[in-house]
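#data-curation
PF: Archiving a pair of folding outputs for the training set. Convention for this channel: one message per protein, sequence first, structure tokens after, nothing in between. First:
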Amino acid sequence: MDIQNWVHILFRSLGAVVMLFVLTRILGKKQISQLTFFEYVTGIALGEIAGFLSTDVENSYLHGIVALSVWFFIPFLGELVTLRSKTLREWFEGKGTVLIKEGKVLEDNLKKERYTADELLEQLRTKSVFRVADVEFATLEASGELSVLLKKENQPLTPAMLGIKVAPEEEPQTVIMDGNILDEPLAAMGLNRGWLHTELEKQGFLLENVFLGQVDAAHQLYLDLYDDQVQVPEPQTKAVLMATLKKCGADLELFALSVENNEARRMYGNCANAMNAVIRDMTPLLER
């Protein structure tokens, strides 16, 4: 093979890679993460055509582009149509099959899906479920994923079940990565480099020694260092604030007990009650 053919294959391959990348991006993330059977076949076909398009120098490049376009437009139009029709969506993508109901395995549905008991138990174990009797409902989705709902008595305990209020969780922002400061997430938290350098100094670490740094909603900085032998102390901002509030409440109660003036005693008592109410409201935010 002469140099001209090598160059020809190089440019054909580059073109195929670019087209394949663009087409798969248009088809969406679902093409990668949750493949149905039809999408699986489409992905294989697009890859095969792109491969032939790269190396089959004897055939027309335009013919390959046409074939690639057909395998792109049919799934793409199919997705647009199935968005509007539940019937077509079930026909193209399939629908879920119930495999377990009220702790009982539905053997007929297992046979229908050609699913063995070993495969069912394996899927349950990936969901941290080791007893079929603990399952209220389990469905094999069209994507092949097993969705499991545990019986009420076997579900994990949550603060809502105990009537405990908790604060909403906000996404922590990564402000340091590979020893470099990321200004955009830092600004999104309303912070700047000066604040970050101050926090690093408080914890006694240099920026170049930090592999990863994240800031939570309470502006607490969590660090992961390159040297895993070094222990990084946990941020104490919330704990210090809670301790300060409790100390203020205790001081007010002490003042209420120690003063002789009735009006002052009443004022300190009211302030202590108000502080205790603040502590109760802040507890879900500061103790989690």
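PF: Second:
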Amino acid sequence: YIKNNMANKAIDLFNEIQNPNDEVIIILLFNACAQLGTNEALSLIKKVSSQIPISFHSNYHLSTSLLDALIQCGDCSNAEIFFSKMKKSVIGYGNLMNGFLKANNPVKVLSLFDQMKINGIEPDLIIYFYIIKALSQIGDYSLAQLIVEKIPNCFLVNDRVQNALIDMWGKTGCVDRAKEIFEKILEPNQTEYGSMINSYGLNGMGIQAVELYRQMSSEFRNESNYVCILNACSHSGLVDQARSIFSNIQIKTEKIYTTMIDCLSRASIFEEAQKLIDEFERDHSPVLPMYSQYY
């Protein structure tokens, strides 16, 4: 059931077991709850974890499964408390960092990184990836520079890390550093193009964003990258370029319409923005974000 994304069926089956006291069964339950990530699943996690024998907590796999379930259900506070009692591992730290990133709490991520160093646990690729993502959320150039310069070079050549760095330098206002990394990539992928376009857009460099968009292979033009380039045009007042790009998009999603409406509204072209809203609503129900951009 869990392998086929049928977590509710797995939980129903668990509830049929009288006095479940098998460690493997408990691990599977926590995995099912993690897959759901709901408040109901969190309540079940807390109920079962409070009833299992204390000896079960010495099972590394069970403890890791419980930690992950708490995180996936959004309860990072209790996850952190539970983690403090666990045997420390790089996987545990990574799971908790990821949870705090999802909760938009990057300061906690950096705090966990400091704890790792104190506990003598060597960070791996995933840890550095999460650290860069946290620095991206914080947006402090000096702090980013201080930490990134200590990351071993062997990790800096990884695709995911390079993309995260492009995004981070863009969000800390250092487009030159982002561009430097991007230009060293022999064959940038879809995500890397999007991150670099977004970096230009965030820093008011719409013309450079459009130039890069024109260089990008048409096969890389997806919803995310369309939104990035339209946002870049919006923040730089490049309405004509945005119109041209928008008109050539074959499949226009809600996000794409909303971003184009934002572009027109920022330029006080409200009549045209209203026409786009009307065009969208001929085949779709009204959506609030579209109107919030308009008004």
